Amino acid sequence: MRYRMEGATVLTLNDADERFAVGQVTWENGVITSVGEMDSDAEPVDQVIHLSHGYVLPGLLNGHNHAAMALFRGVADDSPLDEWLTQYIFPLEAKLSPDDIYLGTLLAAAEMIRSGTVGFADMYFAVEEVAKAIEQSGLRGWVARGITGDLNTGMPLLQDGIEFAQKWRTHRRITPMLGPHAPYTVSPELAKRISEAAKDHQLGIHVHLAESPKELHDLLRTGQTPISWAKAQGLLDQSQVVIAHGVHLQSKDIALLQAVSGGVIACPISNAKLGNGIMPFAMLHQAGVAVGLGTDGAASTNSLDMFLEMKAMAWMQKLQGGRPDQFRARDALQMATRGTAEVLGHPGGVLAVGRPADLIMVDGRSAHMQPDHDAVANLVYAAQSGDVRYTVVDGQVLLSEGMICSFDERAVLEEAKVRAQKLLA
Fold first, then answer.
1. What is the pLDDT confidence band of residue 147, given thresholds at 50, 70 and 90?
2. Residue 259 domain-assigned (yes or no)
């Protein structure tokens, strides 16, 4: 079928920053075929989506998530990272069944679709269930099998990740990766084996690095930083590397990051909530390192709303630099779209002919969106997730006039509540 979204302001986010005041985006077979001003002589389409007083823009990409942890939203809030993980989250995760993970991922998918997210990078276990939930939801997913331990305990997890990748790597919307969790949960020997497997099977790497002061402090005692540790194990030498957090970076890390195919994903709300700090965006940006945006899991950040993350990223960077022009609204929007796409190695994040038909329509008629002096500023500083009216992924409409089309959201919400109560009992 051939679709067209029309009537609203179109923000392409291309290199020329083209915008069309009364624009249209047309797509077929999951690919954009036309972007520009409304044309009365345009070829007919099978379905028209029309909304005045709104914005059409590339869908948002969440560069770091643990989607199934939506079932743990609000658990042990306000705890330090080490305590939060070891005393609360790890014991709860040991109780999760594959069905719990499938349901938790669908719960996260509902929140993401409603808030204009078209794809996300995930690290977890029971990844077969994660992939099935992503397939059902219609979203895109970069799915990494989380791996922890040493050669004795971690090798079966690595093998599980390889088998998952072999099964799912040809899927249109799912990209398998390997997920060495972090320097403090993966032995150097296991990390090297993961690196070898990633190279042998041409898989990307998704890893937590430089997240907390304790992680940095412990590695500095060995003469390494989290980034140099990852380099020493070969984790940075892969076809695509997604580094989550990157808060505590040293100047000597920059040269290593400049050589990475991929980049760093900021998670400002999670990093703030856990007291871990603020990513040095300016240092990375000036060095030409790709930087994207993510939420982390809902257990640590409570929300999977990328509109909130854009606001938080801008506020914290301005505060860190002590200047309001240190970081602009456009920087945040670029991070949530093109920036994350670059880190993931994905051609999305831009509305252009030949690019994936991954786009959203945001309603601009609410009081908090008026007046419309600056579309980008409104989208970053004023818009709320509830303003998203349409979410389209791979050409398929997943959210239409605020209704999820790809699965029964109400049934998911009801079952999620029951499962979460059982896990915490």
1. very high
2. yes
What is the per-residue pLDDT for 149? 98
Domain of 335 in residue numbering reads as 60-344
Average pLDDT, integer, range 90-107: 95
Same domain as 262, residue 178: yes
Question: The whole model's pTM is what?
Answer: 0.97
pLDDT in tens, 186-245: 999 999 999 999 999 999 999 999 999 999 999 999 999 999 999 999 999 999 999 999
For residue 186, give the DSSP letter.
B
- Structural domains counted in the chain: 2
Structure tokens at 407: 């699965």
3-class state of residue 9 by DSSP:
strand
Give the strand order in the sheet containing 388-393: 19-20, 9-11, 54-58, 359-363, 388-393, 396-400, 403-404
Is 191 part of any domain?
yes
Residue 268 in domain: yes
Both 176 and 243 in a single domain? yes
CATH number at residue 255: 3.20.20.140
Tell me what percent of the residues of the chain surpass a pLDDT of 70: 100
Phi, psi of 103 (to 5 degrees): -70, -40
Q: How far apart are CA 369 and CA 372, in angstroms?
A: 7
